[in-house]
Amino acid sequence: MMDEFEMKYGVKANELVKEFHRSRRMFCIHQGKLIIAEPGLDYSHAVWFEKIGWITEEKNELMDEIVRGIVDKDGNISFYIGYDFRVDEEVEKGFFPYLIELVEKLDVGKDAEIFGGYFMESPGGELIPRRKYGLVKDLVNR
User: Fold this and answer.
1) Among residues 92, 95, 76, which one has the least CA distance to residue 25?
2) DSSP code for 3
3) Which residue range forms the structural domain that includes residue 114?
4) Mean pLDDT value across residues 108-113
5) Strand ranges (DSSP E) for the chain?
6) Fewest Cβ atoms closer than 10 Å to its Cβ: which of 4, 19, 124, 141?
7) How high does pLDDT run on average in the chain?
8) What is the per-residue DSSP string for 6-17?
9) Residue 51 CB partners (closer than 8 Å, separation 6+)
């Protein structure tokens, strides 16, 4: 099976990409539940979703419906939908009710930043956040 990451983004899942994947913790919100992936996985959300039977290479509409994201190696949170990492008001409504649970379950620090969406300046380039919402301590009263 070809990694959906490679297929959709034209980025070879080389060791650098795999190291990025291992360095972050994936999560998603599916059927009203926050689901957190095991740590250290070296693949994309698409591969994770395929492994658990939610999507196939032929039937992957859920990538445009499931709010998903990561807690990166620095402890910052990013969330989005779609292969194009988009964010809008509906995605925000799907994410923020689960923020406290995510912060608690992954012990996210109060100074962590929260971002919505990404865009890539060039194919294979750095992912740049579309929106910045602030710090965990400003959005969650713990």
Assistant:
1) 76
2) -
3) 4-139
4) 96
5) 25-30, 33-36, 67-71, 77-80, 113-120, 127-135
6) 141
7) 87
8) HHHH-----HHH
9) none
**Which run of H or of E encompasses 4?**
helix 4-9
Q: Which of 63, 102, 103 is nearest to 85 (CA)?
A: 63
How many domains does one find in the chain? 1
> What pTM does this model have?
0.86
Q: CA separation (Å) from 4 to 10, 76, 141? A: 9, 24, 37
d(CA 118, CA 127): 6
Smallest CA-to-CA distance from 112 within 85, 139, 80, 81 is with: 139
pLDDT for residue 125 is more than 90 = no
Tell me: pLDDT of 2 over 70. no
Per-residue pLDDT tens digits for 30-54: 999 999 999 999 988 999 999 999 9
